Amino acid sequence: MFPLLSALRRNPLMPRLIVLQVAVACAILCNTLFLLGQQAGPLLVDDGLAGDELVIVDQLVSRGASWTPAQTRAGRDALAGIPGVRTASAASGVPMRQTLTLTFDLKSANGTTLTTSGYVGERLVDTFGLRLSRGRDFLDTEYRDISMADDMRTPIIITEALARALFGDGDPVGATLRSGDDTGSYTVVGVVAHLMRYQLSELDDGKAEHSILIPGLLSGMPIASYVLRTDPGRREAVRAQVPKVLQRSFAGQLVPGIEPVVADYERLRADGLRTRRAAVWLLATVNAVVATITLIGIASLSGYWIQQRTRQIGIRRALGATRGQILRHFLAENLLLVGAGLALGLLLALGINQWLMHHYELARLPVPYLPAAAALLLALGQLAVAGPARRASRLPPADAARSV
Length: 404
Fold this sequence. Notes:
Shape: elongated
Number of strands: 13
Strand content: 15-25%
Strand order of the largest sheet: 3-4-10-7-9-8
Helix content: 40-55%
Radius of gyration: 31 Å
């Protein structure tokens, strides 16, 4: 360490520039990698749906009084009669649509309380194409008309992600959950492998699959929604027939000027997550630019600094230093500088995150992002100095010693 520190003290400007560059790059990368992970996470989540078979029918707004369960079921039966429809379900809360949003606070026996998105409807497991991993589907006797004004006491189906968050490694089937205000209770009868929330603003921080299914139809709703599962290859034909069926079934009952939404699920997903994909590309570009600038900057500063010490390199070679020793000296020296820059940069990254949390309600920077960014910059630092150090180690001792 003594030769390394001695050289750094004699020529402090270049080492300080390298440390400063690494610190700034570390602070930026820690936070942009975190933002990139937040934006990319929901794009990689398995939504659990038979997406290529689903047609979503939404935004059927009643012109007069709210829809009754009987009217809602009549519309469902009409849509189920379209050739190519395998199953049809009326639902409050449909995938990738936020026309009507329902949230339920669930409290486990250990006191953990989580906010979830509720899909309320009939035969949703079959219509969505969900896979039950534990427990069972709802029984016919468990479907009923639900008033939101009543105390909720009902069976529910939850996701595996929600089961882990509420019960850890325990078996959730048969367990009872309380509502957040303790006025209702829910009994878990089944668990599905995956089901993404439809509140697109609530997909970060591991909450993308905090969803539940509730059996029945909500009464007193001004908006009706349906999900159709079609035979493979017949989705577009079904979608083309839906407006005609809606016109016949709801003639004169819909609010003029508000057209029902009829779309395949894949298009809705692409549209709903478009801003996230754009953010992913932007943040990925920012990270790539920062990493490239850091690589070039360290290589340039290190190359210039090594060149200024060509005479000392020649003297060391003349005294018997091998090429490997020269190479290892500069790699170790760079490792020391990058390490110092990382120590400063990690503190700066935490400070920036605290400022973003305070002013923009950004989530706390998870600890794993710190070593990830540090490892990336350490690798970039060693890669950047490898070229100049290798060239310096290959200088003939006589030529190096004559350099000024």
